Amino acid sequence: MATNGDVQKRLAEVDRSIAVHPLASTPVREAFAVVEKHGKEQKDAISRELHERNLPSLDELGRLQLRTSFRWWRLHRSRRSLLKKLGREVE
Predict the structure, then answer these.
(1) What's the domain range around 39?
(2) Residue of higher predicted confidence among 4 and 23
(3) What is the chain's mean pLDDT, rounded?
(4) Residue 50, exposed/middle/buried by CB under 10 A (0-12, 13-18, 19+)?
(5) Which of 85, 91, 90 is nearest to 7 (CA)?
(6) Looking at the domain assignment, is residue 18 inside a domain?
(7) Taken in order 44, 46, 47, 51, is the CA torsion positive or negative?
(8) Phi-psi sector, 9: left (phi>0), alpha (psi -120 to 50), beta
(9) Phi-psi category of 41—alpha, beta or left, where left has phi over 0 and alpha has psi -120 to 50?
């Protein structure tokens, strides 16, 4: 059975993996904020702003999501499980 220290160590590893994951990068987060700001129907405005701000394009964001979403989901699932084991509220 894992000790509290083991669980905390594993949580720190998961948090580090989340922090360096491509979906957590600043350019990607900013690009998703642009998409949210404009709404999904305004593709031309989104593409223009992404280009002007030198952020990943809609196509690049789509490819990134396809390649990395499952790992992102698993990391967050692991994090929730570890927090639960520590008796901490899931954020």
Answers:
(1) 4-82
(2) 23
(3) 93
(4) buried
(5) 85
(6) yes
(7) positive
(8) alpha
(9) alpha
Q: Which of 84, 82, 66, 64 is nearest to 16 (CA)?
A: 82
Tens digit of each residue's pLDDT (9 = 90 or more) over 65-84: 999 999 999 999 999 999 99
Residues with Cβ < 8 Å from 79, sequence gap 6 or more?
11, 14, 15, 18
Q: How many domains does the chain have?
A: 1
Looking at residue 20, its amino acid is: V
pLDDT at 91 over 70: no
User: Which residues make Cβ contacts (< 8 Å) with residue 45, sequence separation at least 6?
Assistant: 38
The answer to whether position 77 is within a domain reads yes
